[in-house]
């Protein structure tokens, strides 16, 4: 089994006022991974909260992180963490909300553009490449004519909150699957119509 390290960053905005926003679902996923592994997050000089854990005995090391900056300036802390841990951007997994994917859906990909996501845009700019893994957590499009920027900064609806724990759990499972089995195997599992099959 591999003992390679992965930097897993959950995107979101700092502060209790943002904690339950759709935009913070990436942070929720990293928090879930931390709970699973009884991780203790500590303040890091890269302006982030970081916990180092290992997946099972002899499994890969996960460096779980959430930046202390606002979403749109996530890049600096991420670039600094990669440098601190001497990791190539290909060892970076960014977990973030995605408007273009239906709610309650998880999609995994390597590389590509930022798709209008300002957090991803800033990371690509700071790291100097888009060649990293993204765990895209679907939040769907805003209803009616609601502005997308307003939509992502609202809390999940009461209906959405019913299935939110399973969505967060699925995304956390996806991160673990990438670290243990690789991206292709994880995509085959999570992109199938029925992940249980």
TrEMBL record:
Position of the signal peptide: none
Cellular location(s): Cytoplasm
Gene Ontology biological process terms, A to Z: protein quality control for misfolded or incompletely synthesized proteins; rescue of stalled ribosome
Gene3D superfamilies recorded: Peptidyl-tRNA hydrolase
Domain of life: Bacteria
SUPFAM superfamilies cross-referenced by the UniProt entry: Peptidyl-tRNA hydrolase-like (SSF53178)
The protein's role, per its UniProt record: Catalyzes the release of premature peptidyl moieties from peptidyl-tRNA molecules trapped in stalled 50S ribosomal subunits, and thus maintains levels of free tRNAs and 50S ribosomes. Hydrolyzes ribosome-free peptidyl-tRNAs (with 1 or more amino acids incorporated), which drop off the ribosome during protein synthesis, or as a result of ribosome stalling.
HAMAP family, per the entry: Pept_tRNA_hydro_bact (MF_00083)
Protein name: Peptidyl-tRNA hydrolase
Origin species: Terrimesophilobacter mesophilus
